Amino acid sequence: MLGPLILFAITMAISLIAAGLVKSKVRKWSEVGAASGLTGAEAASQILRQAGIHDVEVVPYEGMLSDHYDPVNKRLALSEGVYGSRSVAALGIAAHEAGHALQHAQLYAPLQWRMSAVKITSFASGAMMFLPIVFALMGMLKLGLIIMVTCIGITMLFNLITLPVEFDASRRAKALLLRSGMVSPGHEQRGVDEVLNAAGLTYVAAFVTSLAYLLYYLLPLLTGRSDD
Known about the structure:
3-stranded mixed sheet
C-alpha cells in the first residue's frame, strides 16, 4: 500500500516543483518590459504574418498560463496576462504558441502525431479511471492490470511525443524573437530563455511521471507477481 503513496508523493513533488518554477520565471519577467514595445498579441501576429500564415486568429483567453494553439480551429489563444502585455515573458510565451502554428503550417511530423493521438489518449485516460476497478471487482486482477498498463503506456507515449513538439516551438520562438528584433540580445534574451526553459520542464515532469507509473504497474506483469 505504501508503494503507490510513495510514487504519488514523488511524482506530485516533481510536478509541483516544475509548475512553481514556471510561475516564478513568468512572474519575474512579466515585470520587465521589452524594448520593442510590442504586446504578446502583436508579436504573435507579426510572426504569423512573416511566415505567410493568414488563416490563424490570435484571440484573448481567460485564465493564467492558459495559452495554447488550437490546430483544429486554427486559433492562437493567449491568456489575459500575455495578450495585451508588453513584457519579455509575454513575448516569449506568445512566440512559443506562434511556433506551434508554424509547425502546423509546415506539417511538422511530431505535431501531426500528437494531433492524431489526442482522441485515443483521452479515451485511455478515461478508461484508466474505472475499467481496472471493474475487472478487479470481478476477480480478474491480471486483466485489470494489463488494461491499466496499456492506458498508462498510451499516455506515456503521448507525453513523449509532446516533448519534441514543445522544445521545437520554444527553439523557433527564441530564434524568431531575436532575429526580428522583438527582444534584444542579452538581458531580454535571457528572460525569454528562462521562461521557455522552465515551461519545458513541466512537459518533462509529465513524461517522467507517466513513465514512472508505467514501470511501477508493468513490473508485476513482467515478474509474474500480478496475481499476488
